[in-house]
Amino acid sequence: MSLLKGIDRMRDVLIENTERFARGLPANNALLWGARGMGKSSLVKAVHASVNATHGRRRRSDGLLKLVEIHREDIETLPDLMTLIRGAPCRFIVFCDDLSFDGNDASYKSLKAVLEGGIEGRPDNVILYATSNRRHLLAREMIENERSTAINPGEAVEEKVSLSDRFGLWLGFHRCSQDEYLAMVRGYCGHFGIKLADEELEREALEWSTTRGSRSGRVAWQFTQELAGRLGVRLTGK
Asked: 137-151: per-residue pLDDT in tens?
């Protein structure tokens, strides 16, 4: 968790939401959206591990908080999954990474039904977390196509745009600044014991980000891997 830089507010909000859920209190489904490579999926996994470490012992009789990943192409099976885990003694975060819908894909209706709860209602022991590069989950051309072909364009577009509204918690991730990017690099190097003069480290890190055309946590990690390999440092956690 300490290696995730530049996303402090999103980290704190998601931890608080997940801790409430782990204690059996009301909590919101969460959509983590925004810039690529800024730690959205990493944050979900880190928060799950952190909350388990904090609350796992207290819930030994009920089992730990489980993280279940469902792939986007399997969204239509979500109602079946809800049936399987309803009433289980554990509590579940159902996680879908890189969620989006294109073309004539109608599987979003299954997700919408689960988020709304349907007739049976979403199980009390389940919460849904998803990541996406899109705030509204749908491609712009998909929305425009609905508007141009529907008998009632407003209602058709509203049905699809409203999908993201079913997530009670929206956390936006934006491109990091140069200082945040360098803090990520220094954090990785310090954690893994990679020794390089700070001035040289900064110069090489900025050159790497320039060649990649972006700055993000992913780019910082890729630079760290390159630097560690070149210096003969094994990336093993401390």
From this structure: 665 555 445 444 444
What is the rounded CA–CA span in Å between residue 203 and residue 169? Answer: 38
Q: Please, are residues 127 and 93 in contact by the beta-carbon 8 Å criterion?
A: yes
Portion of the chain with pLDDT greater than 70, in percent: 79
Taking Cα atoms as reference points, which of 72, 73, 52, 50 lies closest to residue 63?
A: 52
Torsion sign (Cα): 20, 119, 106, 144: negative
